[in-house]
Design brief:
binds S-adenosylmethionine; RNA-binding; alpha/beta; elongated; single chain; Rossmann fold; disordered C terminus; seven-stranded mixed sheet; 9 strands
Amino acid sequence: MYRLQAKKILSQNYIMDMNVNRKIVRHAGVKPGDWVVEIGPGPGGITRGILEAGAGRLDVVEIDSRFIPPLTHLAEAAENRMYINHNDALKCEIGDLWKDSPDRPSSENWLSEPPNMHVIGNLPFNIASPLIIKYLRDMSYRRGIWAFGRVPLTLTFQLEVARRICSPIACDSRSRISIMAQYISMPKIAFEISGSCFVPRPDVDVGVVRFEPRKSPLIDVPFEVIEKVCRQVFHYRQKHMIKGLKTLYPEEIADDLAHEVLRECRIDPTTTSIRLGVEQFGDIARIYYRQCLNMPGLFPYDYTKKRLTVAELAKKSDSLPPPMQNFPKAELPREGCKLRDFAIS
Ligand SMILES: C[S@@+](CC[C@H](N)C(=O)[O-])C[C@H]1O[C@@H](n2cnc3c(N)ncnc32)[C@H](O)[C@@H]1O
């Protein structure tokens, strides 16, 4: 009706098959009366599925102005249940959409049942990775939409990325995002969608991943510290893990501090990063965090930008990692940690 052509720059691949759209909504678990945020509704296929499922309120975030007229059309038919936000999802704080709505279905607290809320999106491939990191960070601080409880996320990714997110230990797909996603949530590939279901057809198949936030994260160190440890330790995937770990430090102290970490964690320096469990990344992050608190300037140190020394970085305002006070404490024994998640060395 609106003669809209997909824009490659916005990674637009639409799902025109309503059965697939409904399947995404079903796996997300939307029930009548639930509140939903949809990222990148485009022409509105999943949007229709969410409204059909009886969502009590639906807020969509779409960057492309060409979709605003068809979405407005849908909103008019949805009888005050649907709200359109013409915005960039990377800049939009989705928790703000509902913060002034006292009737929102929030949980009593983080440990109670998840609230009747969902975040759903057939994401553009080009923003999927930065967006999931932003959402995992907010989830770890229980801020934004996660201030309302353990809101589940149901998002699409290139199948290869979906497999990395959910990868078990010792698999080739194990990477930084596996640890980041699994320590704070329980990601699962709900189902796969063949590239042929999309218009235009992408070169890859797609995985629909559902992330359920954990009651208690497997690592109790600020997100930014875990992120940095994972990034550096996975830096040399095929080599001994100590090689990546050492890149956290300036050369002259790298050997001593990296060995201090591994001695305390009882990790074999010759193992590879894919063979480390989430809990072992937690042990490494905890000791690295302590080292950073003892040595201002170490946390912002970046081995690719050696111009600034730790001593120089220590004089800056961001010389220390984020404080633990901002970070919610683990309230319960760690859940969902399986034996296979421990290192094979
Ligand atoms: C892969 S298409 C999916 C469209 C629709 N949900 C579907 O499944 O058919 C991705 C959608 O996200 C939108 N988009 C791209 N970048 C965005 C951003 N930064 N913020 C919000 N929407 C974005 C695109 O315009 C497009 O509508």
